[in-house]
Amino acid sequence: MKIVIQRVSEASVVIDEKEVASIQKGLLVLLGIVDEDTQEDIDWICKKIVNLRIFPDDKGIMNTSLLNSGGDIIVVSQFTLHASTKKGNRPSYIKAAKPDVAIPLYKRFIKQLQVELGKPIHTGEFGADMSVNLVNDGPVTIIIDSKYRD
Predict the structure, then answer these.
(1) Which residues of the chain are modeled with pLDDT < 50?
(2) Which residue in 35, 47, 135, 144 is deepest, having the highest Cβ count within 10 Å?
């Protein structure tokens, strides 16, 4: 499981010219899933997301987590995070899980993230053509892969 976290001052997702999700302060999480991902990956990465100290404290130092800052989350599925660009100029997405594997894991990820954060999570729509709008705060962008925990 691979994620890209962006700390945002605002973010939204639009599908077919209709806004389906929006937040102010918080995190935009782009989520890529592979066949080998398990509940263990979900649990580990969800805990990491809500506890990552990337929000400023009262001294302006990145020392506060999403749990402590009160921010929200938008999760957007993004199979292109697992693109292979080793050969040629056209990325291969063969590592990305197909929908029959990815959708149940995506739903479990959302559910677990809601448990960890203690409030609803905003989302895009799995497999939809989405317009993701954001104002990256900082900018702060972090990539985490559950297969590289050490």
Answers:
(1) none
(2) 144
Q: Give the pLDDT score at 149.
A: 82
Pairwise CA distance, residues 87 & 119, whole Å: 43
80 a catalytic residue: yes
User: Of the listed 6, 78, 112, 123, which one is catalytic?
Assistant: 78
Beta-sheet pairing, 72-77 with 122-123: parallel
Q: Looking at the domain that runs over 2-145, which CATH code has it been given?
A: 3.50.80.10
pLDDT (tens digit per residue) in 92-106 = 999 999 999 999 999
Residues 24, 38, 39, 80: which is the catalytic one? 80
Q: Looking at 55, 79, 109, 126, which residue is catalytic?
A: 79
- Start-to-end CA distance of the chain, whole Å, equals 15
Our answer to whether residue 79 is catalytic in this structure is: yes
